[in-house]
Amino acid sequence: MSKNWEEFLAPYKQAVNELKVKLKGIREQFEKADDHTPVEFVTGRVKPIPSILDKAKRKQIAMNRLQEEMHDIAGVRVMCQFVEDINKVIHHLRGRKDFDIVEERDYVTNQKESGYRSYHVVVQYPVQTIMGEQMLLVEIQIRTLAMNFWATIEHSLNYKYNKNIPEEVQKRLQRAAIAASKLDDEMSEIRVEIKEAQKVFMQKKENEKKKAEN
Amino acid sequence: MSKNWEEFLAPYKQAVNELKVKLKGIREQFEKADDHTPVEFVTGRVKPIPSILDKAKRKQIAMNRLQEEMHDIAGVRVMCQFVEDINKVIHHLRGRKDFDIVEERDYVTNQKESGYRSYHVVVQYPVQTIMGEQMLLVEIQIRTLAMNFWATIEHSLNYKYNKNIPEEVQKRLQRAAIAASKLDDEMSEIRVEIKEAQKVFMQKKENEKKKAEN
Amino acid sequence: MSKNWEEFLAPYKQAVNELKVKLKGIREQFEKADDHTPVEFVTGRVKPIPSILDKAKRKQIAMNRLQEEMHDIAGVRVMCQFVEDINKVIHHLRGRKDFDIVEERDYVTNQKESGYRSYHVVVQYPVQTIMGEQMLLVEIQIRTLAMNFWATIEHSLNYKYNKNIPEEVQKRLQRAAIAASKLDDEMSEIRVEIKEAQKVFMQKKENEKKKAEN
Amino acid sequence: MSKNWEEFLAPYKQAVNELKVKLKGIREQFEKADDHTPVEFVTGRVKPIPSILDKAKRKQIAMNRLQEEMHDIAGVRVMCQFVEDINKVIHHLRGRKDFDIVEERDYVTNQKESGYRSYHVVVQYPVQTIMGEQMLLVEIQIRTLAMNFWATIEHSLNYKYNKNIPEEVQKRLQRAAIAASKLDDEMSEIRVEIKEAQKVFMQKKENEKKKAEN
């Protein structure tokens, strides 16, 4: 059985690796264009087997329908500095021709009750394996650093309390969500300042590099 | 001259690489001990040549005294999830035998006027080169993720305005510093909750890994 | 001008990074299938600007025709343990749907006079950039470790002597080519032995891992 | 029990990671000094648990004496282009102050009967852990690429046949060892040529880089 899982998950792992390289590349392209990059960093993971089993049970997905019905077995996360960058990333994703978008969920505009904020894009991505091409679902989550910080903590707490976080802790979490959101707002306000600053910074660095090399 | 710099900076680059591997190792050791790790991630850099020249001029350091008098040519940064983790990292650094601490500056307790918070430890670190051993100064900065986020932005703005940030922008920066600090406080309050949650999380993951492999 | 090159080469760098991840993935898939992997390791590079200029001059390619006419600006190299593995890699490349093969050159069967052996596949690969999709030529070279060792050295000597290697040195190079080829032949003879050995090895490792974890 | 092993091996893993970064650094230092580098690449591994158990049994080492008596639990391998480079690496290792050499074995001059060639240096290396300093034995193996290629194959075959390789296969292995050795000899003969070529190559690259950037 263990062997079976490894074979099933191998192309998902490959998809995650490829999409990480592809989306990290976007970051460099923006930097080279001397522009503020909407991509701060990119991470990815394949869902752990126990979480797949849990979710399949909860959502009543048959084991032989996982590939078609569970859309976050492969997950890629794009972290942004500013809330405004999230839209730029989505715009880029919509223009790519190496996958098809099958679903979008906007939890930035429509924050979850828990305080969760994030933008989800589910894509259908073709992986070339040694057995031929496979079409896989991959979930791409786009968030600010503050949204991500908060979400990581909520994830841990959900785990601890088996999705039944006590009211007391929930309230604390909501206060933290407000603090995270407040930080995002303050950041947006100095965004224009920062964007210009970073552009100047990049050019200076470039000029100094040239000077130093002569 | 360019050639000269490359040779001068090579052992600093080596020191940064070695200390990054060493401090990242700490993270893994805590994780394996099923304990909350005080080290979230570690970055490092060698100061760019133009910044070395700038600082030498500003601080009146002679070119042949850089190795002895400029303590941040090599810099390593340790990011923590909680303010409380900063002390744990400092405690570990003080116990290490692979370098000597020559200075500590606590800008966490004594925040700078600008809003800057961070703990700085300057160490004397021996690097083995193809020409023999060299003793180098390395600055290790320890901060929370929120402190780091803020500091990165202040750095860009300082660059843009050549260390003369306009009052208007300074005020905005201070508001952002307060928001960052607020987020750190909220995080500290749910820290005990989170620490326990993460421990449980790690054990579950471990157990599920074993189950899945059988 | 420098800026121009950086923009021109950025998508090539991206193509190399993506293809490296894709072809390294093949290696893991074979390993997971408990099979001998034809891919030992994968490297890649973007041709240095001076080499592009040299070649453009030599082959009379206009600067605005580089993208269409120079097929090795992006290069990926696949190293194999055995001569027989080269065919397996070619077979896999022909089946992939993420690029089109536009040319194949077999310098394994038809060794160059110099002693050079390698299999070249030129593909047309689509890269998604922040400005849209770009079609790029990429040269994939497939070789054994011994072929690669020899080729690296010939490359250095060609550089030194500006493509006019003295007869004396050429003779030595040819003797080295014979020694490299002899090593490949001996390897092929024990190949079946080794292939079986590696398979057994992998299974043992797997079993011992499981035992150790219980 | 599994948990125990993880804790026991963690500092060995750390030692391997640190020494890999340290010895890879040597490579870069030689390259920056525009000199032929004796270090082609560096790998490392912690001995798998089943192999530790096997060896402990074979050599009658008690489980509580592993740290003192088994000297290859942590292993680092340095690959060289030429046989002559091996001595340069040894010379460098003897001069380092971050570990003490406790043993050297020269299987290059005194090839094993099987055909095995390699130079082994056992060092005592201090690792700083979260529990304090630990002194560990690490085995550093220095070999040419051809020696390494052969050794990898012998290792697989030994595994398959449980250290009882049939005579027929042994003969084939010895023929391959002779071919590998022959390749090393041919390489040594063109070494002076190549060394000069590589030096010229590096300088040209450097010059062209500068030209391209202006």
Question: Helices, strands, pairings?
Answer:
The structure is a homotetramer of 214-residue chains.
Chain A: H1 2-32, E1 41-46, H2 49-59, H3 66-69, E2 74-80, H4 83-95, E3 100-106, E4 119-129, E5 132-144, H5 145-160, H6 167-189, H7 191-213
Parallel strand pairs in A: 2-5
Antiparallel strand pairs in A: 1-2, 3-4, 4-5
GO biological process, one term (chains A, B, C, D): guanosine tetraphosphate biosynthetic process
Family (chains A, B, C, D): Belongs to the RelA/SpoT family.
InterPro entries (chains A, B, C, D): GTP_Pyrophosphokinase, NT_sf, RelA_SpoT
Detailed description of the structure:
Chains A, B, C, D: Homotetramer. Chains A, B, C, D: This is GTP diphosphokinase. Chains A, B, C, D: One of its GO terms (molecular function) is GTP diphosphokinase activity. 4 copies of one chain form a homotetramer. Chain A has 214 residues and is α+β, with helices and mostly antiparallel strands. Chain A has a single domain (2-213), classed as Beta Polymerase, domain 2. Chain A contains 7 helices and 5 strands; from the N terminus they run αβααβαβββααα. Chain A has helices at residues 2-32, 49-59, 66-69, 83-95, 145-160, 167-189, 191-213; strands at residues 41-46, 74-80, 100-106, 119-129, 132-144. A 5-stranded mixed beta sheet of chain A has the order 1-2-5-4-3. The longest helix of chain A has 31 residues, at 2-32. The mean pLDDT of chain A is 89. Chains C and D meet through α5, α6 and α7 of C and α5, α6 and α7 of D.
